[in-house]
Amino acid sequence: MKRNVKDVEASHRKLSRRALLLGGLQLAFAGGLAMRMRHLQVDQADQFRLLAEENRINLRLIPPARGQIYDRNGTILAQNAQSYRITVVPEDAGDVGDVIDKLSRLLTLDPEDIERAMAEMRRSPPFLPITLADQISWDDISKVAVNAPALPGITPEVGLTRVYPQQEDFAHVVGYVGPVSDYDLSKMEDPEPVLMIPRFQIGKVGFEAKREDVLRGKAGAKRVEVNATGRVMRELDRREGEAGADMQLTVDADLQYYTQARLGKESASAVVIDCESGDVRAIASSPSFDPNLFVRGISVADYRMLTEDPYRPLANKSVQGTYPPGSTFKMITALAALEEGLIGTEDTVWCPGHLEVSGRRFHCWKRAGHGHVDLNTSLKSSCDVYYYDLAIKVGIDKISAMAKRFGLGVRHDLPMSAVAKGIAPNKEWKSKTYGQDWLVGDTVNSSIGQGYLLASPMQLAVMTARLATGRSVTPRLLKSIDGVEQPSGAGEPIGVNENNLRTIRRGMYSVSNERRGTGYRSRIIADGMRMAGKSGTSQVRNITAAERAAGVIRNEDLPWERRDHALFVAYAPADDPKFAVAVVVEHGGGGSKAAAPIARDVLLQALYDGSPPLEAYPKKDRTNIEALQQRLERERIQRNRDSGSGSGQA
Mean pLDDT over all residues of the chain? Predict the structure, then answer.
């Protein structure tokens, strides 16, 4: 059928519009393609040239600067210092053995370091740098730089490493860092990528480990160009990381130094707590060790020397060590009885030197007995029979509950390693632990701090601070984070009758200030500084029949590891308590003889914020005290000369 002219024209118009639309779309597509090609070929020419040469861009982490640690006055305890090291890139060195031999002629290389480096080379790609010598001097760096043309593949580098300028004084408090190990990574569910950086340092023990999350900081990053084999060609850009937070502890470095030195060569520990705030002013464990030895890996010989020492220098005795508290626990037994209304201050108990309980004879330390004893005399003379009698009346459950109110049998929340909970036993505890019933004899033993009872020096210091103040003083080790003050440990009223607390305090005052008191020989005589305390001797063995037959009765006749522990707790001034102290001397014998003089001297050092006047001491002690003060001052000056001042401001 023939189409008319109008239909033909309409059809042509439709085709023209479609052709125009299709042409426009094709033109737009071609234009977009051309612009994209220009972007790829011109704007991104450099990047694709790198790809064409089989190069690629990698993102690499930059380790952050670790936060520094200070004492309460701004003295540096843990800092970052520049560390010079020598590295080698095996593929650049060619004959590695020959290059190392040349290097060893310039500076002294540790054979252990070389052996470790060779082992690392065998399991690492040849383009990665391997450390040959670490923490070397600037003179050694200069020698290597001058002889660089003859040492292919050898590079001197500068980095940061951890340094502990106070050395042994804070080893158990601050702890130390070390390179991340496979064991460290195995304990983490999702390790941060920064931990994969070779030889990256993290906290291993102590405060360094417990506050690792805050001290570590945030890693930075850099974009680097690497070739197909992974070798770095150049750095493209960099974003610096975020340094870790600076931490300020409550400990006083000067008091800590004195306390550590005063413990001397004993296997011992001491804790000083601020009664007002709960701040831990000193926390010493002796013997100690130099944490700097662990930063880059301690030698086998040095580590063996520490682990084989019978005095256990690696153990933090102040919070980790637990001991029968001995007679320092008698205040708790007495307070439990007072709170129950079972005794009055004038009530007396007859002490013939022993007490028969269930067919067994429990002896007093004074075999001849103390005669009629009231509460004040029982503390002053440390009569055991008085407390045997009290314990049977009050019962172990109430004694245990009172012990926990005063910080015993409680794990205190401190950022330190292996903080012990101790044991404040009761009937339920023995049933769960041993599947046995509690016996009356167990109660009698517990009344004088023996039997199942165990407490750390930190717990004993907390107990003493709470007795002195009537508040639930809580130990605080961290003072501030980046200048932000942390919550106080002052605590709320403990809820014990104040009259009963005054009675206990009078007894503790008598211990140190009345002639028949067990701590009288180690008293403070300065006005306004008088000390209230309590000695303790905890038995760690029974003398066997064979030893008794051989005449071995005295504590000092036994081998060191079987001798009694010596303890002393105290606070001062007695009428306005500022500091509480606890001292434990392992196998030291009597507390009044071995531990009380240390506690007195440390308390005076804290009260005077430095060396106290000789007039504060009894006349018989002044010559020895003066000699001790002079010796410690000489040692302090010498150490500062050897290691630098080691001080800075937070």
Answer: 86
